[in-house]
Each structure stands twice: as structure tokens, then as C-alpha cells.
Specification:
The complex is a heterodimer of chains A (321) and B (347). Helix content of chain A is 41%, strand content 12%. Chain A is of the alpha/beta class. The chains are: A alpha/beta (321), B mainly alpha (347).
């Protein structure tokens, strides 16, 4: 099971620099908080370090501000840069292709090698899964490691951003970023839900009809906009990434098809050629939206730009249709 | 099923009408179930009438909508036919290999078909080509691996089946190693590759069916024609030669036919395991040890088994899909054990 999840989370990546409206605010916040706890708020702030965070591998204590962070997760890389810890990052994995400034190496997040990781002399390592022994190995040499599994909900994504903020000395910035994201998402929901609620969607991950249900991070975003996901009926156990039957998709006849597998050579033209698909209303109406497989599979601030873009395209479809 | 199993002390050398018609009946029943059942429920009587409507020259009014008709004819029908072809090819390929190599565990996967096809598909997904090209690469990989096995087996000097099988094991291990390495380097293609390996009839249409038909027909025909020779081969290479059989000629005709057809089948369906072992052995345990019986019965029961497995794979967790390779192993392995036990107890 983890393979599917992992592949979904590792796909690829591009960032939309701070997502449209948020850029100015978040930069300011980062500057304010880059000096330890110097803010003028009346909240009583504990000293930033030692910092304690609760993650999937338990409670992790980080003694001092990390200056040599390794990220083996494309989403974590984006989130580290988003909370302002980018300058502390010394190496990221081969799939972390955003932002440009991320120091990409040939380290692998899928088959991590303890020695190669240690050769960078990290003081904090962020991973999205442990194939076995990695966490123990790092702990044995006193390198704190944060295991942040793929987000399966919006709350997970927010938690990860806050944790990364706290662990790197940018806790204010992390919290502000999450607040910004919450506000922005709230705004989007208010703006578009009336127009697009009830629209049925099918999000295609690959040409064998793997999809995302509302039990995934992306699916929850769709759900929040009032979209009706046809994959939900196929995922009673909440796994998040069910494989649908061809005939079920044809029978459901979704209003909009979101195509994350354009990289496999799929497009509205190839969809038309699939058995039984030529009469689907999404295809007749041209309501096939190609989405970036990187951005759509990661849980980062860029998700907001992505979901806004999708929502607006669907709203156009609904208005036009 | 047991009624067909015993023909007194001497077992018949040709299948006889009963097992063959039982096989056809099972296959037809599986096909009808495959057409009429699925995650989307079609009104039974309408779907039934629509099936008759499809027979050329007959027109029957049915109340199915255009969508329901396309589910019936463009999604379920090619899947059922593809399942039949793949099942028949894998089963008869397994039977043929077991006969030629006198090895109960042999099937075309053993000479590198599976590993080669897997490597071809992995390369295809890594480069990022369309699914049609992945099919071609998988086919080339399978043929390439078997060709390499053949060359290595010959270069080992002796021409026995053992040398060939050992070469096949080595080539498979080598191809799998390269495949694993490529997967490690391109972890983003993992899901596609695993989906492919677990087997898929999810996306087949009439185009894929048309591509497989010639291989299946030619291979099935060739192996059927050689079924008597397979029985003769059973006494050993030297003895068969003494009986006037051109051992090498038979071996290569059968191996080539089974390999080409299996490569064509797995390149569209993925690596569906177990069929080539379970079906021929079940047939053997229930009827006869003669290949004159096993070959034709493997074709019909192989087809029936895979159509039934595919029906399970799209209905058990509907409207989600279960990879068919998992169904064949999950259902097939225990079923096979039951057959083994019950036959063992009786004799």
C-alpha cells in the first residue's frame, strides 16, 4: 500500500512562489521571526530551543537551531522553504524539484542510504517514510529525524508546516503561514462553492484509473469546494487512492475530468479513444482539465494556488456549460 | 466435477465429449456472468436481450441506454474476450512447457518471459512513453529474454532441457536485477510499474483483443497439433527419439509457440501469475495425464478461470478494482491445494 502512497507523494514538483496573494505577508513574517523569539507580541513565547515536536516517530527534541537540514521529501522541502528555513537546508532528495533554490542532490527518499546522508553531516533530517532502520541509524549518531508521512488530510498538511516551523526556529512563521492558508482557503470556498458545488469530478492519477478519494489530502480540498468525487464510493476504507472500474466511470459520467497523467501521454484526445468514453459529457463539453502531477500530489502552500486554479476552471466550465 | 475424473482403470487418451463440453459450458457461463454482472448493474432482461441483438442478422428490442450499451459492448465484452484469450494462452503455454521439459513447475515465465516483459515495461514507464509503446517494449523484452536464454542454453554445450531452464533462471534474475535498479532510480514510476505487474484487464478494448487473437490462435493450434508428441516426449528424450520422434523439432515448435503467445498475452495483460501452473495441473489431476487431454482442456478451463477471476477482480471491491494477478493467486492457490489434497486422498 505504501508504494501507491509514496509514488503519489513523490511524483514531481513545481512551486508557485508563495501562492499569489500571500507572498508579501509571509516574507515579512519570516524576517520578524528569523531572530529567535524577538517578536513584540504579548503572548509569552518559550525559548525556541530546545524545541520539542510530536511526529510519527514519537516526540523529537531538537537541542539547538538546526543549520544543516536534509529533506528527503519533496513536500517537506517546499514547506521548509515556505516557513523560511530554506537557508538552513543543505541537501534535498532527487525528487525535490521545487523551489529552484533547493540544493538538490542524488539522495533518494525512497531508498535512503544512511552513509550518504551522514556524509553531509546533517543536524536534522526530514523523511516521509522509513524503509527500515533509517531512523534508528540516525538516532544512533544523535541526528534528530522527523518522520512526516504523506498528509492524508488538510489538518495533516497544516500540522506538518507547523512542526517544520517549530523544529527549525520559525514557529511563528509556520503558524502564520498556516493561518494565511486557512484564510485563503476559506475565501476561496466562499467565492466559488456556490458556483461549482455539486459538480461531479473524476481525478485520474494514471491510465489504469487510479484516482483520489476524499480520504486523501487532495480529495479533501475538492470536497471542501463542494465537488462530488466519484471515487468516494470506491474507497469505503479510506485508503485514499482507489482504482476505479472503467464501467463505473462511464456509468457515473462525471461533469469534469481532472487529468494528472498528461505525463503518460493522456489527453482529451486519447480519452476519446478509450472504450465507451467518447460519449462522456466531460469529453463532449471539453471539461477535461490537465493538472500538474507534482503540485497536485504535494501538501504545501502551493496547493492553494493549484486548487484555486482548478476551482476557477471548473467554474468556467459550469458557467459555459 | 468428480464424475469426469474416473474412467475406470484405464484413462481415456482423448478428452471425450463430457469434459470438453463441461469445459465449454463453464467458459460460456463465465463469459455470460462476465457480461451481465459488474459494478454497474444493468437490468438483467434488457442486457440479456441486448446480447441477442448483437448476433448478426438478429434484431431484438432492448431498453438499454447508449451508456449501458457501451458498457456492455465496449468495456465488458472486450474484457471477457481478452480474459478468455489470456487465460487460454497462459494455461496452454504452461501445459506445453510442462510437457516439453517434463517439469511440473515449468511455464513460459521460467525462460524469462515474465522478467523480460517486466523489464521492458519498466523501461517504458521510466522513459514515459504511451501505454501502446509500453506494450511493445514489454513484448520485445519478453522475446529478448527468451532469445538470450536460448543462446545461453545452447552455449552451455549440452542440449538438454536442464541447461535451458538454468539459463532461463539466470536470465530472469539478471533482468529482474536491472528492473529493480531502474525502479530505484526512478521511484516516481513505481506505482505504474506495480500496477502493470499485478496484471490489468482494466483498460482493454477491442484493439488489444485484435492484437492478441493471431498469436493465441496460431499458438493454440500448433500446440494442439503437437499434443500427441508431448505424450511421446514424456518417456524421455532418447526413448522418444528411438520411437521416431524428432525431439528437438517438437521442442522448439512448442516452446516457440507457447513463448510468443505468452509474451503477447502478458504485454497487454501484465504478469498474471499461477494460471499456467494451476490450470494444467488441475486438469491433469481430475482427468488424465495424457497431453492429448490436458492441452485442449487447459485451453477451455484456462479461459473460463481467467474470465471468472476477472469478474471477481471488478466486483469484489466494486466500484474499485482488485488487481487480477492478486485474484488468480489468492483464489487459485487454495483451490489448487484442495484439488491436490482430495486427489491425493483418493489414490
Amino acid at each position: 500500500m505504501f508504494i501507491k502512497r509514496f509514488a503519489v507523494s513523490t511524483a514531481f514538483l513545481l512551486f508557485v512562489a508563495g501562492c499569489s496573494t500571500g507572498t508579501g505577508d509571509s516574507t515579512t513574517t519570516i524576517e520578524l521571526t528569523s531572530g529567535p523569539a524577538g517578536s513584540s507580541t504579548t503572548l509569552e513565547l518559550p525559548p525556541a530551543f530546545p524545541a520539542t515536536v510530536q511526529v510519527a516517530n514519537g516526540e523529537v527534541v531538537i537541542e539547538a537551531m538546526p543549520e544543516a537540514i536534509i529533506s528527503l521529501s519533496p513536500s517537506a522541502t517546499e514547506n521548509l522553504f515556505a516557513v523560511g528555513a530554506g537557508t538552513q537546508v543543505i541537501a534535498v532528495d532527487d525528487q525535490s524539484n521545487f523551489p529552484e533554490a533547493a540544493p538538490r542532490t542524488d539522495l533518494s527518499g525512497f531508498t535512503p542510504n544512511l552513509e550518504s546522508i551522514l556524509s553531509y553531516e546533517p543536524d536534522l533530517v526530514v523523511i516521509t517514510f522509513d524503509p527500515g532502520g533509517l531512523i534508528e541509524g540516525l538516532e544512533a549518531v544523535d541526528v534528530p529525524v522527523l518522520l512526516l508521512p504523506s498528509a492524508t488530510s488538510i489538518a495533516d498538511a497544516y500540522d506538518e508546516i507547523k512542526v517544520l516551523g517549530t523544529a527549525t526556529g520559525h514557529s511563528r512563521s509556520g503558524q502564520d503561514l498556516v493561518t494565511d492558508m486557512e484564510n485563503e482557503l476559506g475565501l476561496l470556498v466562499e467565492e466559488v462553492t456556490d458556483q461549482i458545488a455539486g459538480t461531479t469530478i473524476y481525478h485520474e492519477l494514471d491510465p489504469t484509473y487510479y484516482s483520489v478519494s476524499s480520504s486523501s489530502y487532495l480529495g479533501e480540498l475538492y470536497q471542501l469546494l463542494g465537488l462530488v468525487n466519484i471515487a468516494d464510493a470506491a474507497d469505503p476504507d479510506g485508503f485514499g487512492y482507489p482504482q476505479l472500474s472503467a464501467e463505473y466511470i462511464v456509468d457515473q459520467d462525471p461533469d469534469v475530468i481532472l487529468l494528472a497523467d498528461a505525463g503518460f501521454g493522456e489527453s482529451i484526445e486519447t480519452l476519446k479513444l478509450r472504450p465507451g468514453w467518447s460519449g462522456l459529457s466531460a469529453i463532449l463539453n471539453g471539461a477535461v482539465i490537465e493538472v500538474d502531477p507534482d503540485v497536485s500530489s504535494r501538501w504545501t502552500p502551493r496547493s492553494l494556488g493549484f486548487i484555486r486554479d482548478v476551482a476557477e476552471k471548473i467554474a468556467d466550465q459550469v458557467a459555459g456549460g | 466435477m468428480k464424475t469426469i475424473a474416473r474412467g475406470g482403470g484405464i484413462r481415456p487418451a482423448s478428452p471425450g465429449w463430457l469434459p470438453i463440453s463441461l469445459g465449454f459450458g463453464t467458459w460460456l457461463a463465465a463469459c455470460l456472468a462476465g457480461l451481465l454482472l459488474g459494478p454497474v448493474s444493468l437490468p438483467f432482461s434488457d442486457a440479456w436481450r441486448a446480447l441477442f441483438d448483437a448476433i448478426p442478422g438478429i434484431h431484438v428490442d432492448h431498453g438499454l441506454s447508449a451508456t449501458q450499451v457501451s458498457i456492455l459492448y465496449e468495456i465488458r465484452a472486450p474484457r471477457v474476450i481478452m480474459g478468455s484469450l489470456v487465460g487460454a494462452v497462459l494455461a496452454v503455454g504452461g501445459a506445453a512447457y510442462q510437457g516439453v521439459f517434463r517439469n511440473p513447475l515449468a511455464d513460459p515465465y521460467l525462460l524469462g518471459v515474465a522478467a523480460g516483459a517486466g523489464l521492458g515495461a519498466t523501461v517504458g514507464f521510466g522513459v514515459g512513453v504511451s501505454s501502446g509503446v509500453v506494450t511493445i517494449l514489454a513484448f520485445s523484452g519478453a522475446i529478448g529474454a527468451v532469445a538470450l536464454t536460448y543462446l545461453l542454453g545452447r552455449s552451455m554445450g549440452n542440449r538438454t532441457a536442464t541447461a535451458l531452464i538454468l539459463a532461463g533462471v539466470a536470465v530472469s534474475a539478471f533482468a529482474t536485477a536491472i528492473q529493480t535498479y531502474l525502479l530505484q532510480r526512478n521511484s516516481d514510476t513505481l506505482r505504474s510499474v506495480y500496477t502493470w505487474i499485478f496484471g490489468r484487464l482494466t483498460t482493454v478494448g477491442w484493439g488489444e483483443v485484435g492484437g492478441l487473437v493471431p498469436y493465441a490462435v496460431v499458438a493454440g493450434g500448433l500446440i494442439l497439433m503437437q499434443r500427441r508428441s508431448l505424450d511421446v516426449l514424456g518417456v524421455g528424450d532418447d526413448e522418444a527419439a528411438a520411437l521416431g520422434l524428432n525431439v528437438n523439432r517438437v521442442r522448439w515448435i512448442v516452446v516457440l509457440a507457447a513463448t510468443l503467445a505468452t509474451a503477447a498475452a502478458v504485454s497487454v495483460s501484465g504478469l498474471i501469475g499461477f494460471v499456467g501452473i494451476i490450470v494444467p495441473h488441475t486438469v491433469r489431476l481430475m482427468t488424465s495425464w495424457s497431453y492429448r487431454v490436458i492441452v485442449p482442456l487447459s485451453i477451455v478451463f484456462g479461459a473460463a478461470f481467467l474470465v471468472a477471476a476477472d469478474l471477481l477482480s471488478r466486483t469484489v471491491v466494486a466500484p474499485a478494482e482488485l488487481p487480477i494477478g492478486i485474484v488468480t493467486a489468492f483464489v487459485g492457490a487454495p483451490f489448487f491445494l484442495v484439488v491436490l489434497r482430495s486427489v491425493g486422498r483418493e489414490s
